[in-house]
Amino acid sequence: MSAFLAAGPDVDAPTVALSLNLLWIVIGAALVIFMQAGFAMVETGFCRSKHAAHVVSTNFMIFGLGFVAFFFVGYSFMFGGFSLPGVFGMDAPTGSALIKFGDWVFLWKDSPGLSGIGGQASTASVMAFFLYMVAFMDTTATIPTGAMAERWKWSSFVMWGLFCGGLYYPLFGAWTWGGGWLSQLGNNAGLGFGYVDFAGSGVVHAVGGAAALAGAIVLGPRIGKFDKDGTPRALLGHSIPMAMFGTFILLFGWFGFNAASTFAATDIQFATVAANTAIAAAFGSVAALFWVHTRTGKPDPSMMVNGMLAGLVAITAPCAFVQPWAAAVIGILAGLIVIEVVWFVERRLKLDDPVGAIAVHGVCGIFGVLAVGIFADGGYGGGWNATSSSATDGKGITGILYDFGSLGWGQLASQAIGALVICTVIFGFAFGFFKLQDKLTKGGIRPTAEDEIAGLDLVEMGVPAYSND
Amino acid sequence: MSAFLAAGPDVDAPTVALSLNLLWIVIGAALVIFMQAGFAMVETGFCRSKHAAHVVSTNFMIFGLGFVAFFFVGYSFMFGGFSLPGVFGMDAPTGSALIKFGDWVFLWKDSPGLSGIGGQASTASVMAFFLYMVAFMDTTATIPTGAMAERWKWSSFVMWGLFCGGLYYPLFGAWTWGGGWLSQLGNNAGLGFGYVDFAGSGVVHAVGGAAALAGAIVLGPRIGKFDKDGTPRALLGHSIPMAMFGTFILLFGWFGFNAASTFAATDIQFATVAANTAIAAAFGSVAALFWVHTRTGKPDPSMMVNGMLAGLVAITAPCAFVQPWAAAVIGILAGLIVIEVVWFVERRLKLDDPVGAIAVHGVCGIFGVLAVGIFADGGYGGGWNATSSSATDGKGITGILYDFGSLGWGQLASQAIGALVICTVIFGFAFGFFKLQDKLTKGGIRPTAEDEIAGLDLVEMGVPAYSND
Amino acid sequence: MSAFLAAGPDVDAPTVALSLNLLWIVIGAALVIFMQAGFAMVETGFCRSKHAAHVVSTNFMIFGLGFVAFFFVGYSFMFGGFSLPGVFGMDAPTGSALIKFGDWVFLWKDSPGLSGIGGQASTASVMAFFLYMVAFMDTTATIPTGAMAERWKWSSFVMWGLFCGGLYYPLFGAWTWGGGWLSQLGNNAGLGFGYVDFAGSGVVHAVGGAAALAGAIVLGPRIGKFDKDGTPRALLGHSIPMAMFGTFILLFGWFGFNAASTFAATDIQFATVAANTAIAAAFGSVAALFWVHTRTGKPDPSMMVNGMLAGLVAITAPCAFVQPWAAAVIGILAGLIVIEVVWFVERRLKLDDPVGAIAVHGVCGIFGVLAVGIFADGGYGGGWNATSSSATDGKGITGILYDFGSLGWGQLASQAIGALVICTVIFGFAFGFFKLQDKLTKGGIRPTAEDEIAGLDLVEMGVPAYSND
């Protein structure tokens, strides 16, 4: 045990940089995967104890179900047929066809499907990239489990997990991060850099929120949620502490979600991203606290939670492009929006969303997408888009507050187009899925009233969440 | 998808090193922020269920409330007018005036207030530094929420959060980490390197503990805590598991708290810091277990928790300067101290501290500050202080066990001065705040006896922590 | 505050690489230590509330108890007398004797016992290595606390913690990772590279599982677990959500457990390891879900948990050596194995294992060890073994699916030898310990039936886990 290492390995700086960048992606992926625990705690805490084993089990299994479908189908669908501009410094794709489903899983060497890939470095990069991407998909997949909680058949949930990982999430993903048409809007004059979404206010959260909305509509409200005259009743969650601990886990994981989306630690913009993320979370929670206190006279804990999450969701798209003051403003606005939308969904739309997923992920996700076109200051991003670059006088992503001309308005237009696609095509995709599933399933995708009143734990899972033997 | 990256970006070693160092700070900040979940679980678990929504909500909102005040006021106050020796290799300050409050938030480029800062690297460094610092502030801010739990008005708590982030924490912070007079004591002969506190046994924990003590005095004990003859009664916490899970989260986050306080991964002392931190935590918990078992005949779970936390708090100041055996000794002593002090506070001082924050953070924080002057072995630190360096024969921070002469005793004196300031000026600042607030608030800062007996959840928060609908 | 750093420190690439590698080990260690929280939640959640303070306290204190014993004895025992091939690029050992127990803790400088070590870099490397290693030991130590839960005296548990950290874990550790005879089997022709266990399916998990089996036998089943005719009864855990949250913490921490076992971020195989780890976890949980649903008609939540953990345990040894498809297959097989073995242990062996530790860690750990000899594809590993290298035509670790000749079968033989040693020698070591302890302890290591029926919390810990004062 005499001579422990006193000097580092004999490698050059680019090699160290590659290692560092891959490490950041892997750590980021681990943080995002840990967010599954956060979602599980928030959603379970906000639900009632008689359904708690069911709710927590959906949040638990979504990881594996979505993962398996993304592994075999979704990943290839999302990234197989499009260019991956800038990410990992990859070349343009050699062919325009989709790679064959599942081919990538045999990538070691002598892989017939991916023979162009050679060496350990390539393999490691693909593996890191897959891991980070599958974690993002699972975030989307877990969002509807909250809005649809307490009245959703387990069998239907299982199908959702496979559908989301294989097709639902990857569709909008392919159009944006996969290099598809939305990302290429910027090739048209007057549309800025095309649809830009740094870490997924739209790609992940609004897409998940759209499914949450679709599912909540198809299922209808929980028994007892609305009085005969349509007045909503509070169905209290069974553990406020559980929900708040989960929110802190989400805040923690969000640093991986947003800051590792630089895909490189050598792009030190990640530090700015991390700080902006925290700023929006803090201001979101404070704004929601003061707003709900003003409006109701009480500092409702569930709105503190939703305020922080709203700030986090909204900053996710613009986090790399805005100044700290703008992160604060985005957080504040999200904190106000989320409260009003939670009430609007419940009181006006008469929809039942036990955890507020539609407001938090759906509406604040859309707000985050649009915020890029408003607050982006032109200091970062867009280097991958040669066409736009020349047309933009060297500026990066720029919103209307920093360019009230065609660059800013064009960017906002691209963002609005993306938002519109989510609200129509993607929402329709989810709605169609749940509606079709409801038709094809014997008895529909909702448990019987008897089972719902008894609690889904014993009927569906076979065990109670809590036992006091 | 043919050619994934097989070689790293073309950068030089210093650029990679900068990226690596910033990454360590950002990961460290995320870990420290995650500690908020740990504090929330420990404090909520040790409190009673009828106050649990209130307690967890104070722990939840403190993050945002302290953050917002630090963002606008505290950060500038703490770092604006002083030199930042060594940190980030920054130059000496150009002026002695405070930077204008809030100026730093517009730091991208063309920032009028900070025009000397240029380029993305500077921006990223400032952002990372701010994020790490705001996380530390929030640790201080959350400490009194434990000692003051179950009998504190929400409105008073909100003011505390803003006060702590804006003024209370930054004052001692400015005098130490901000480059103020305590850090410059070493310019005087015979005071070692001045007040040294690697990661904040004093700056964070004892300062928080001082506020906890002040708050507990002003509020008085919970109804039922003491019999008529002054004998303390155990008011059992509602969840031992919750408190223990939270403690593990704190242990986990503490690696970011202490080890990332090198502000650089290229300063590989961080590895020694991390190991010392774990050593003190382990020995602290074991010492407390054996001590409480010996003294009471039972292995009290709450004392295991306090023993580990005591070890962590005490090693926080000396973690970079001591050998592994010293980390073990510091942990053991802290584990013994915390038990005796918990009992002393309760039985002699007749103070009610539901979670033991005064003993854990206050007294063990002070012990950690003094431990630097005792156990530091001269092998690290002090390079920033040119004056001292020449006077210290090239040694780093040195305690009396390694230099029984003027260097060691001088260091211990500086540490004692810092400790004294916390016990007097800083304690007085907190005491004055709570006392004044108590006078100015209608009905004082303590809820009515009726509300306290009913539980603060329904009265103050409007919802119960737990519901079994 | 004018000139924040705009360029990195002036260091060369090997220095940055050293920093990066140490950082990865420290972050990895923190993640593994955080797994203690995961184990605590899973085991406590699966137990009954009247024993919950006892169960969570064993999971809490095992960290410190094992740590202290490993610090003084186990670390030196495991690594003192053997070569550490490849790890940290260390030289061969200068002597064959064990280093004196505890010497390493005085390693700063002028250390008599370790005078060969010089300089800060060596110190930091030793500290990082110790920290990572102690975290692994504690994982082993906490495994029996699950299988022996609800019927184990606290005093006996304390002895186990010290025994495991000092002797039990380090024995097999010395024979494998410490460079002992099992790791050197490859010097014999026809035994591949000797026993290979990348991150410890055997060294950590099966060794822990062997102790779990031994302890469960010595203690016997809980009162009420089996009817008079030997039919097992379900003793429901008191919190399914707690167990599932804990499992996500374990998944999160496992990225440190497996991926940081490269001991270097410059060995970018860590990215492949991380992805394989997630793949096995996902497929394990999905396979278990479908299998238990098929076999029982219900999607048992506890089997989802065990399925994910089974996949994680099984991939731990082969994670660096297999392709993604193989990781999926290993996960699926583990998910099926764990269910059948849980039932076999309960129904055939009539053993009571409240959390399934024997099946998850013991049997799936053995499966993982063998999986190296089956699925390893020859693309990585083995560079440390010069003898083998020449005999293996430049291939790395290779299983029978990639070499059906002597290389593959030899590797599988080495793996089988290691597995056999665990099932015999190591199991016997644990069984002898518990048996001896049972003899020497007044009244044995099991509490009285009266205490067990009342719940161990009040009798042994002096407090209830949950209180509703």
Short description:
Three copies of one chain form a homotrimer. Chain A is an all-alpha fold and 469 residues long.
Question: Secondary-structure blueprint of this entry?
Answer:
Three copies of one chain form a homotrimer.
Chain A: H1 13-45, H2 52-79, H3 119-147, H4 154-175, H5 201-219, H6 240-259, H7 269-296, H8 301-316, H9 324-348, H10 357-375, H11 386-391, H12 406-440, H13 449-454, H14 456-461
Helix pairs in contact in A: 1-2, 1-3, 1-6, 2-3, 2-4, 3-4, 3-5, 4-12, 5-10, 5-12, 6-7, 6-8, 7-8, 7-9, 8-9, 8-10, 9-10, 10-12
Description:
The structure is a homotrimer of 469-residue chains. The N and C termini of chain A lie far apart (53 Å). In chain A, helix 2 runs parallel beside helix 4 (154-175) and helix 4 runs antiparallel to helix 12. Mean pLDDT of chain A is 89; it is low at 1-6, 82-102 and 107-118. By secondary structure, the first copy, chain A, is mainly alpha-helical. Chain A has helices spanning 13-45, 52-79, 119-147, 154-175, 201-219, 240-259, 269-296, 301-316, 324-348, 357-375, 386-391, 406-440, 449-454, 456-461. Chain A has one domain (2-461): Ammonium transporter fold (Orthogonal Bundle), CATH 1.10.3430. In chain A, 69% of the residues are buried. Chain A has 14 helices and no strands. Chains in contact: A-B, A-C, B-C. Chains B and C meet through helix 1, helix 3, helix 7, helix 8 and helix 9 of B and helix 1, helix 2 and helix 3 of C.
